[in-house]
Design brief:
By secondary structure, the protein is of the alpha+beta class. The protein has four helices and five strands; from the N terminus they run H-H-H-E-H-E-E-E-E. Strands 1, 2, 3, 4 and 5 form a five-stranded antiparallel beta sheet that branches. Helix 2 packs across helix 3. The protein is globular and about 35 Å long. 27% of the residues are buried.
Length: 114
């Protein structure tokens, strides 16, 4: 999959903003209810105990994605930021696939402490 850097940044921004706004239902719909549910996302963040905030621009600029063996998707890990810590050890793992929109199709593979 040929990666579009602007599309990657826009997708990561969208997903992390939804997390920061605690809009887990919209995030579940955006990911087409694949993998993690709204309830699972809410639980993971609640158990972590920090207040997730939108990614600062410098963190978004470092967003990277790597191709899968099939070439049909990319995966990305994103370090989340909290109000309490700044860059936290809470990590979001995503699978990205092509779409006909300005954002990639997304699956949230995991949200956990690294």
């Amino acid at each position: 999959m040929k990666l579009d850097r602007n599309k990657l940044k826009a997708t990561v921004r969208h997903v992390t903003d939804l997390l920061a706004n605690r809009d887990y239902d919209t995030l579940e719909q955006f990911t087409h209810q694949r993998r993690l549910s709204a309830e699972q996302l809410a639980t993971a963040i609640s158990e972590y105990g920090g207040t997730v905030v939108p990614l600062p621009d410098h963190a978004l600029e470092r967003a990277e994605a790597f191709g899968t063996e099939s070439g049909q998707a990319c995966w990305s890990t994103v370090d989340l930021f909290t109000a309490e810590e700044g860059r936290s050890d809470l990590t979001l793992e995503l699978t990205l696939r092509q779409s006909d929109t300005d954002l990639y199709n997304v699956e949230i593979d995991n949200l956990h402490v690294m």
